[in-house]
Amino acid sequence: MKLRTIYQHTLLALLIVSELACSNATQKGSESTIKPVIENEGVKIAYDDTRTGDTTLLFVHGWGINRAYFSPQVNAFKKSYRVVTVDLPGFGESGKNRQSWTVENYAKDISAVIKTLQLKHVILIGHSMSGFIVLETALTNPQTVLGIIGIDNFNTYGWVETPASKKETDAFFNMARANYKKVVSGFVNQTLFAPSTDSLVRKRVTEDIIQSDSVIAVNSLELNMRYPADARLKEWHKVLYLINSSMHPTDTLSFSKGGINVKMFDVGLTGHYPMIEKPEAFNKLLAQAIKKIKSNSN
Questions:
Q1: How confident is the model at residue 132 (pLDDT cuts 50, 70, 90)?
Q2: Is 145 left (phi over 0), alpha (psi -120 to 50) or beta?
Q3: CB proximity list for 49: less than 8 A, separation 6 or greater
Q4: How far is Cα 112 from Cα 47, in angstroms, rounded to an integer?
Q5: For strand 82-86 and strand 56-60, is the pairing parallel, antiparallel, or unpaired?
């Protein structure tokens, strides 16, 4: 009886030790996969991070959409690079709890992502309005950012707003504030799609944009247009890489005249969303641009 009791106690002790070991291992495993919370001035930033890779591709989406638009690029590049995608505050799953939606504020958001995730050797890739955002981010993080790649943006350099064009722009924003869904839906369908754009892409983009917070969407777009892009480009002393659609031709001559070094990759006739409209062709050009940036940084 005494031997049996000792055996039972010993077995129980072994079970306890085993359970504790398993519990600690589970805790350590979960700690290693805990996703850091990223915030800028109290605003949470939703993101995805593949975690591995010496060079980071940080994708920033355009107006009214979200980080899911870069899924074809994540799948294509995650084996070779660390890939991070974010939802800009005000869009997707990120917070909306602030009042200012300037390019400079958004650049601080992306800087918070870089700092929190301790990213190194970063290539910033910005679609549409985020071309200005990645430019501003790069200028404020010169030691970390290797280069920037714009997607269907920076179509011209040196354009000067006239009283007539300002009146037209102001009228658009006034109408958008008064009847967001109707005005913006018309704008999206008239200007952002090519004849070849798939109907599912049209539907997806239109729904995402018109379902955005109207106040944030209008304010962010208007403030983006007021950003002094030409002056800031003068401070970017590296090549500006662009992957643009031929639907709205890029005036590369205007950049040359302004002393801005641009390398443009023409993805062909697509709408404003070449990364999902022609993902394979787009990814090939993106790989070329990344290779150029990496070779220039060595």
A1: very high
A2: beta
A3: 35, 82, 83, 84, 117
A4: 12
A5: parallel
By the 8 A CB rule, do 297 and 239 touch? no
DSSP SS3 for 237: coil
pLDDT of residue 182: 97
Tokens read off for 98: 């602030």
What are 202's two structure tokens? 């049209």
- CA atoms within a 13 Å half-sphere pointing along the CA-CB vector of 137: 31
Residues in a beta bridge with 44: 39
**pLDDT (tens digit per residue) in 40-97:** 999 999 999 999 999 999 999 999 999 999 999 999 999 999 999 999 999 999 999 9
The whole-angstrom separation of Cα 292 and Cα 235 is: 20
pTM of the model: 0.89
Report the candidate in 47, 53, 67, 46 with the shortest Cα–Cα distance to residue 121. 53
Do the Cβ atoms of 238 and 261 come closer than 8 Å? Answer: yes
Under DSSP, is residue 232 helix (H, G, I), strand (E, B) or coil?
helix
Amino acid at residue number 268: G
Q: 148 pairs with which residues across the strands?
A: 124, 240
Which of the 8 DSSP states describes residue 215?
Answer: H
Half-sphere exposure (Cβ direction) of 115: Cα atoms closer than 13 Å? 13
Q: Which residue has the higher pLDDT, 9 or 190?
A: 190
Per-residue pLDDT at 30 exceeds 70 = no
Q: Pairing between strand 240-245 and 145-151? A: parallel
> Pairing mode, if any, of strands 56-60 and 43-44?
unpaired
- Contact between 128 and 63 under an 8 Å Cβ cutoff? The reply is yes
The Cα–Cα gap between 144 and 297 comes to 11
What's the pLDDT tens digit per position in 251-286?
999 999 999 999 999 999 999 999 999 999 999 999
Query: pLDDT value at position 297?
Result: 84
